[in-house]
Amino acid sequence: MKSGYRILFSFYITFVVYSLGTLFLGNAGIVQASLLENYRNKLVENTTNLKHISSKLESQYNSLISNHELIVLKARDLGYFKNDEGKIIIKNYQKRPYNLIVGSFYQRFSNKVLSSEYIRIISALMGILTFLILTVFKGNSNEYKRRKSVTG
After folding, report:
1. Is residue 136 within a helix (H) or strand (E), and if so which, with residue range?
2. Separation of alpha carbons 131 and 59, rounded Å
3. Spatial separation of the C-alpha atoms in residues 105 and 107, rounded to whole Å
4. For the segment 50-59, what is each residue's pLDDT rounded down to a tens digit?
5. Distance in angstroms (rounded) separating the CA atoms of residues 19 and 26
6. DSSP string of 55-96, one letter each residue
């Protein structure tokens, strides 16, 4: 292979490696798009859960505003009693916990892909490596000799 072809082939390899690296591992590549989509789905799910919790809390708030008996019951749950009331303790009875699960906290999205500088360096090194390999293993292909035809 001639020297010009080796250089062109090395540039071609550099271009292909850079293009594929950018397509799959770049900032706007396939891997990054998949990570962003997963993050978006988690945020949508979290927002839906928070809206559901908000509607539950709003309905509880509205019922507390309008219902005096419910306020008295909630006060008893918190340990407040009227003067003439007493507290009855039943042995081995466990009250059901009334807890709301609040939406999860998500950290800001961070890139987990190669930066474009690394992709450029890797593709340049692949091009140089290709050129060196073609130069070392060029063999006798440059010295192709044409056979003389024997006519007689």
Report:
1. helix 116-136
2. 72
3. 7
4. 899 999 999 9
5. 9
6. HHHHHHHHHHHH-HHHHHHHHHHTT---TT------TT--PP
